[in-house]
Give the backbone structure.
Amino acid sequence: MEKLLIVADRQHSGKVIARGLDFARQMGLQPQVLVFTWASLKGVEAMQAGSAAPLKKALLARHVDHARELIEKHCSDDANSVLVRGVWSKKPEEWLISHLQQNAADYYGVVALVEETDSGMLAQRNWDLLRRSPVRVLRVAGEHWKRTHSVLAAVDLATSSRDKLRLNERILAEAKDVAGALGADLNVVSAVVVPQLLEDLDVIDLNSYADELKRKMQPELERLCEKYGLKKSQFVLKRGEVDKIIVSVAADYKAQLVVMGTVGRRGLAAMVLGNTAEEILEHLHTDVLALKP
């Protein structure tokens, strides 16, 4: 059985543990909860030699016990089957990524609350997880719709890139499996992007141009419908910028989960691609299952 690693930070551990346990149960995965702890104990050790080790052990035990209490509260019948591991690390993101890279074959994915900084930007350590994790990342939203109905798959029907076409297929396959496990409807969104230059110049009929783009998407849409047993009515093709369209359609359908690809590059390319993903994650009031390219 594949494992689902639930990263429980102290501030939001209840929310992440609850969502992770529910997802593991629905998907038939073995949940494991990971609790990170760290504090500088140099001063303590300087005052009394040998006192740091038992204090470190006590702090770890306290946080592990707290996680166990939350697990017991959420699923009292199966609480004993959930493994809880405490890790002492000053750089938890590095430990986590290294652990996942070494044990990727064992894990379906990792569950975490992707946080923002005070400026509204995603914290760098969160981007490190999204970019470098070799397994799926389930981003738990800070808040949810009051009522949820569907799973939304975000694809690019306009692409001619083989890599992106393969990613489209993986997104649809994963989204269909998750929707089936959750008992939810599946919808698929693809943005119809009109170049900004044409928008600014206003020299052609933009509605006609967008309709032509939609027409060119039809062969790929029909191929995916046939391969994955979907109906054309499940697809939403909407004109606009990618990030705004995904957020808008997710709101229209009150999606409980958005399945999308994430960046796998570094440097300038990652920054450019990351801006779109960041806008999506910042404004989505729903969970996101991010897949590697």
The longest strand covers residues 30-37.
